[in-house]
Amino acid sequence: MTEPATDDKAGLIAKLNNHRPAIIRTLGGVISDVEDGLCVMEFDIGEQLCHSTNVVQGGIVTAMLDAAMAHAVFANNPDVIGLASLEIKVSFLEPSLAGRFSCRGSIRRAGYKISFLEGELYNAAGTLTATASHTAKLTRS
Prior knowledge:
Blueprint: H1 6-18, H2 22-26, E1 30-35, E2 38-45, E3 50-51, E4 55-56, H3 58-76, E5 80-92, E6 99-110, E7 114-123, E8 128-140
Antiparallel strand pairs: 1-2, 2-6, 3-4, 5-8, 6-7, 7-8
């Protein structure tokens, strides 16, 4: 897929943000960029989603990665209406402390029914705190 034109890209980002699930809004998540096979999301995670000493709970880290990877598929495949996780593997590289995060979800390989996805989570200082690989089953319209 080629990169959308500027107006189309802005419209696609607006459409994706308008249809964010409630959990993404709860995590302060917004889509900030889409490109060929890529989606970038920004998250604002408060201390209420942390456990000991301000460390974001691992399930929340996984949710951010999952969201960015899934939205990479939705942004690049307009006929995909659903995505079911078959497997997600997360590697926690550094503690993810409450604050602002940037998450990059990308399509590693896309098939008609199955896609292989990757994600990277960065804190506000630009430190890579977690990575993920994801195998997903796609539902098309």
